[in-house]
Fold each of these.
Amino acid sequence: METALTSGILTSLAGRYAKALFDLAREKKEVESIGSYLKVLQKLLHDSKDLKQALMNPTLKRQEQANALQEICVKIAAPETLQTFTCQLIKAQRISYLPKIIEIYDNLVLQMNGELRVEVISAHPLTPSQGQVLKMVLKKSFPGTLNLIFMKDPRVLGGIMVRMGSRVIDATLVTQLDKLATAMKGSA
């Protein structure tokens, strides 16, 4: 199950929590259900700044935060496994890791289905033909189904960055300029 692309991520704190939730969900045959409810929970936290602040507020008692999150989970009819998990995150003061846990959990689901999430970051959107060429090149090194997610980030200036699990291929102009600046400082 674990590959070289995910082993480093799974050793992080968020990775260990995501793997524990994934293993429990798989054991209870709730992998897809929990994944769906994680996305709903993430959207609620993203859309409600008050909720997010309340859950991240260290002055509130953990039990109050856990009760509030439990109430939300009940209202959205989340599986009991997820309700217990989120309460444990609150009690351990790890709720701030939830977005990363969700991302890693999603990657584990993709991996279970023989897919690999690949983030492609560029200054400008790639054309469909450029995306297909990139996908064909990546398929030569990474068998299975590649789930390419294209993101635009003007800070990269040009070129692309490809992220697959813990592996990063950085062919951006900003990185090349940084390397050039470092080399020029070293020779001065």
Note: The longest helix spans residues 31-47.
Amino acid sequence: MNARQTPRKRDRRKRLFKTIACSGCGTCCSEPIVPVTDSDVRRIARATGRAPESFVRFYSDDDMDFAAESGVWIRFPAGVRAMGLRRRKNRCLFLGDDMRCTIYQHRPRTCRTFPYQTDLDESGALRRVTMNPIVKCRRRRVDDSPLTKLVRDSRAEDREDDRYYARVEIWNESVGGKKRMRDFLAFVERPAGARGKKSKR
């Protein structure tokens, strides 16, 4: 029994947020380009058995609207590019004809939190939730909730984003502008810190 619980902790435990349910319209998988991290690429490649170059494309700043100082921009001889999922028929490659994700269990982290935008405090607790205005989501409003799963997914997304941005920075500082996109895919196919196989003599 926690008789000395502070008012702040008590309020946070009871706090509820607006919750939505997907209507299945497919808009969020059709209008925006889906950015991916190295963790997303490895997860999808393992699940589908596909080579990363078959589902990854590198987009220019004419295609994707990220700030110049954001961590997504990778330097190549052809200019800076951001990594995202390929598109087919003006929608995500993995969106099925029934408007359902064909890799749902292995989808990118950003897809797991969209269309929510979360503001987490330093402890990782949910402080504020808004809806991403990038597309006109035809969501359905449902009961308020503490959004426990969203918080868990948001924390995981932040961790994977931070690791990926660090790797992009390493690439840009060491070989950025010198090597090509296929070299970057080879660079991120291995988890950070992993070593290549030793050659046999």
Note: Residues 16-189 form one domain.
Amino acid sequence: MKRRAAITFTAALLGLGFWSLTALSADDDEKKAAQEAVLKLVEAMNKGGDVKGQIAAITQKFDELEPIMWVYKPKKKGGIGMGPNGVDDIELTIGKMGGPKYKMTPKKIADLKDDLIRAGELSKAIAAIAEQDKYAQNYAKKDLAKWKNYTKDMKKGADELIQAVKSENADKIKKAATNLSKSCTDCHSDFRE
């Protein structure tokens, strides 16, 4: 009897372990699919074409914004990241850049130029997705107008960042990073569950 109980217990543990691995794998697959969709959207936005169909497809495929927002995470966590080999979290890095202690030097601008432009492009694409009615209704039940303003501020901050980086003006980059970061942190403080 003890042997049968031990076998049953072991089988249950193995089953539970396997189930948790497949659940994690499905979650990772969703994040990868969202990342690919966002990158394709960025590419299409950069070409200047009509992206409404792509945004609608992304909105239909993903019920939550989490896998879409995951692109901001470092590569080791399944995101895109920034910096050498994607080791840095995009959102946190942008937030630090806007801070009073961060010194923006010409070398830093040159080293981060491509990453900062990419961060702006990703943010612009994510704002275009997040402003869709499905997500606004899911997340902004208490204040739809505020949600729409945050997505508008995110787009504006992303555009400002892209333009500031292209101009290589340290003060403009810091201001744009502050504005973009503020749009994210304000929205998260009001709507993140």
Note: Helices lie at 2-47, 52-61, 66-69, 90-97, 106-130, 133-139, 144-167, 170-191.
